[in-house]
Write a structure and sequence with these properties.
The chain is of the alpha+beta class. It has a domain of 90 residues: Translation Initiation Factor IF3, CATH 3.30.110. The protein is 24% helix and 36% strand. The chain has a four-stranded antiparallel β-sheet with strand order 2-1-4-3. A hairpin with a 2-residue loop joins β1 and β2. The longest helix has 17 residues. The radius of gyration is 19 Å and the shape is elongated.
Length: 133
């Protein structure tokens, strides 16, 4: 009985340690750094103010909150990064038709203990619609 429980705990621990984000190569898209050209003011339209909040935490290495909102579960050891990604996604989604946030500002709060942690991040900025594709 003891050996069975030990094996179960070890298997669960291995699953938790190997879980996380993955990357995939998309045909036709170069792997590595992508170069973006800055937009001129004639290539976008300001739609208004945008604001979004993301909240991510973990208890006993089990994540909760806005995980997966921005397309990536993230890491239980860096919940602030996942909360920022979720807040940015929610800010863009808060304005209908928005493609991006211009000059985003963020404010966050994190609390970490041994087996518990949580982060909340709020992002504010100007929502824009890109006119030139």
């Amino acid at each position: 009985m003891y050996a069975r429980n030990t094996a179960l705990v070890l298997a669960l621990g291995l699953v938790l340690l190997t879980a996380g984000c993955t990357t995939a190569t998309i045909p036709g898209v170069p792997y590595g750094r992508l170069d973006f050209q800055p937009l001129s003011s004639s290539e976008y339209k300001i739609l208004g103010d945008a604001e979004g909040t993301g909240h991510v935490g973990h208890v006993l290495f089990i994540p909760f909150g806005d995980i997966g909102v921005s397309g990536c579960i993230g890491s239980m050891f860096q919940p602030a990064g996942s909360a920022y990604s979720a807040a940015m996604y929610n800010a863009i989604e808060s304005v209908p038709g928005a493609d991006a946030i211009l000059l985003p500002r963020s404010k966050g709060k994190s609390v970490e203990f041994l087996l518990f942690g949580e982060s909340t991040v709020t992002v504010k900025g100007k929502a824009i619609k890109i006119l030139k594709q």
